[in-house]
Specification:
Number of domains: 2
Radius of gyration: 24 Å
Number of strands: 0
Oligomer: single chain
Number of helices: 18
Largest sheet: none
Strand content: under 5%
Length: about 525
């Protein structure tokens, strides 16, 4: 890339060339030095260091949901369809509640962390510089100081040094408070309004799906505080460019879920209730791990309540709330239309949607990397790195989408029998496979454009463009689902994601908003 380190030149050495190349030709940002997209330079290492663990962490939960789906699919198609509706409701309500918070948290934490680098360097060079490694901990205790008081004093010194190493980032405390409150509100909403919400989703009072759907949704909702709190903490870690910690926590929690699923479902014979109980336990386990790790790096409690940034969070959060509601309406409407077609089409839609989302979430790893790096670059007004990062993540997203299309095209037809033996469900899955595969490059670019917009703090455009996309998409969903049935739903989903991708291209390609610098 024009602004990326290679051939012995630094990013700053090539900054002028990068800006000259983009001047008056904003669309060039999509194609700049595409042949270097896989170059393992400084920027490539930074992107992959964030993207790969982030993508794997995101994949862990859908994979656990797929395992749930596989276990439940062997109970029966009615239970599979019922749980599919409940998962769709829970995920979409959680997305509405937490997605704006996670997105603004990542950007705010990255900005505050970038602007505090100078202050941290002063501390490191001062008299409080310490390495709190285990070896130095031993050195703190000299051979002559073997008394209990000396050991106590040494540990107090160690604890004090750990305290000094913690970063003071006000956005962290704000995000944790909001995440916990939103989680409690979601639990109350889903417990007391589960029946009417399922009715809206097409599960009628006389439907065989109602009882298992209610059981799963009510029990799953008890884990909402843990889900939202852990997602808020993941937003913090992403802002700190640390996606490995969320990966380890998520894998540990989801592995627990996978182990507990058959125990609760078949050994204790709880059925779909067992799947929900196992999932709730795993979510609280994930939240506990993340909270334990976060307290080692960041001050969880602000020095003064005045430092909490509720106003700033709410202002940007409401913009993204409008966006996520618009996006949620589209996906939820598709699930509702599928449920109205019956248990068999809904079961097939649930399986395909989980695979569609799980594979597409790989691109979200690139989106997180782009958001964190761009937020830091914009905070420092480093437009050279901004341009290089945007180009690189978009090019990698396109390649990733094409690879996913090929892999799913070969693997999904064979692997679909892992989820169900019902021939009617399988026939519907085979109908959806081409749409799941073809849309992968579109999905990857759309998700990465989201991360780019958030990294540029372009929350207003992200919200307004999504509302327009949703209006057009909802019309397509209703029209095509009514006229084409199951196929129509997937055609409408493809249109929806294509419009999202086009909105991202338009913003950067016309060099508007925070991208005005591309015009020179």
């Amino acid at each position: 890339m024009g602004a990326v380190c290679f051939r012995g030149e630094s990013l700053l050495d090539r900054s002028a060339d990068a800006m000259d190349g983009c001047e008056h030709r904003p669309f060039n940002v999509f194609f700049r030095d595409a042949r270097l997209a896989f170059r393992w330079d400084e920027l490539g290492q930074e992107i992959m260091g964030i993207a790969l663990p982030g993508a794997l962490a995101l994949m862990a939960d859908p994979v656990a949901s797929l395992v749930d789906t596989a276990f439940i699919g062997h109970i029966g198609p009615v239970e599979l369809a019922a749980v599919g509706v409940s998962i769709a409701v829970f995920n979409q309500v959680s997305r509405i509640a937490i997605f704006p918070l996670v997105s603004v948290t990542t950007s705010f934490v990255a900005e505050e962390d970038a602007t505090s680098v100078g202050r941290e360097k002063v501390e490191i060079n001062g008299e409080n510089e310490h390495n709190v490694s285990d070896s130095e901990m031993v050195e703190l205790i000299s051979p002559k100081e073997t008394s209990a008081s000396a050991i106590k004093s040494s540990f107090e010194t160690y604890s004090s040094e750990v305290e000094q190493k913690r970063k003071n980032i006000p956005s962290v405390s704000t995000a944790l408070v909001l995440g916990g409150v939103l989680g409690l509100l979601e639990t109350l909403l889903l417990v007391f309004c589960a029946r009417p919400i399922l009715g809206y989703m097409g599960v009628k009072p006389d439907s065989a799906m109602l009882k298992p759907a209610l059981q799963y949704l009510v029990l799953r909702s008890l884990g909402a505080p843990a889900v939202l709190l852990s997602l808020a903490m993941q937003g913090v870690f992403r802002g700190l460019k640390d996606t490995k910690t969320p990966l380890y926590a998520t894998v540990a929690g989801d592995a627990t879920n996978i182990v507990l699923d058959p125990i609760f479902m078949f050994v204790f014979q709880y059925g779909v209730r067992g799947a929900a109980i196992a999932h709730v336990i795993s979510q609280y386990f994930i939240a506990a791990i993340l909270l334990w790790r976060l307290r080692l790096h960041v001050d969880l409690l602000p020095a003064d309540m005045k430092h909490l940034q509720f106003g700033r969070f709410l202002k940007k959060g409401f913009l993204l709330l409008a966006r996520v509601i618009a996006a949620t309406c589209c996906v939820t409407l598709c699930a509702s239309m599928a449920a109205r077609l019956g248990a068999t089409p809904m079961a097939a839609f649930q399986i395909c949607l989980q695979i569609w989302l799980a594979s597409s979430l790989l691109a979200d790893g690139l989106a997180f990397a782009g958001q964190a790096i761009l937020a830091s670059a914009f905070a420092r007004k480093d437009y050279s790195k901004t341009t290089a990062t945007a180009s690189r993540v978009l090019q990698l997203a396109l390649v990733l989408g094409l690879l996913l299309s090929i892999l799913l095209g070969f693997g999904l037809r064979i692997g679909s029998r892992l989820f169900t033996d019902d021939q009617g469900v399988l026939n519907h899955i085979y109908i959806a496979i081409p749409f799941v595969c073809i849309t992968q490059p579109i999905n990857a670019l759309a998700f990465v454009f989201d991360g780019i917009n958030y990294g540029a703090s372009d929350f207003g455009y992200a919200a307004y463009s999504m509302v327009l996309v949703a209006i057009v998409s909802i019309i397509c969903i209703v029209t095509l689902a009514s006229s084409k049935g199951f196929i129509g739903i997937w055609i409408a989903l493809a249109i929806y994601m294509s419009l999202r991708m086009f909105a991202g291209f338009w913003r950067i390609g016309t060099a508007r908003g925070p991208w005005a610098f591309l015009r020179g």
